[in-house]
Amino acid sequence: MDPVPFPEQSSAPHAEQQPEPQPAQRPEQQRVPLDPRDALQAALEDARRRAVDALTPVMPLLTDLGRVFEDAGHELALVGGPVRDAFLGRSSADLDFTTDAHPDATAALLKRWGDAHWEIGRDFGTIGARKRLGDLDVVVEVTTYRAESYDASSRKPEVSYGSDLVADLSRRDFTVNAMALRLPSLDFADPHDGLRDLAAGLLRTPGSPESSFSDDPLRMMRAARFAAQLGLHVAPPVVAAMTGMAGRIAIVSAERVRTELEKLLLAPDPVPGLRLLVDTGLADHVLPELPALRLEIDEHHRHKDVYEHSLTVLRQAVALEEQPDLVLRLAALLHDIGKPATRRFEAGGGVSFHHHELVGAKLVAKRLRALRFDKDTVKAVARLTELHLRFHGYGDGDWTDSAVRRYVTDAGPLLQRLHKLTRSDCTTRNQRKAQRLSAAYDDLERRIERLKREEELDAIRPDLDGTQIMGLLGVGPGPVVGRAYKHLLALRMERGPLGEEAAVAELRSWWAQQPEQRAG
Question: Could you write out the DSSP letters of every residue in 314-340?
Answer without folding.
Answer: HHHHHHH-SS--HHHHHHHHHTTTTHH
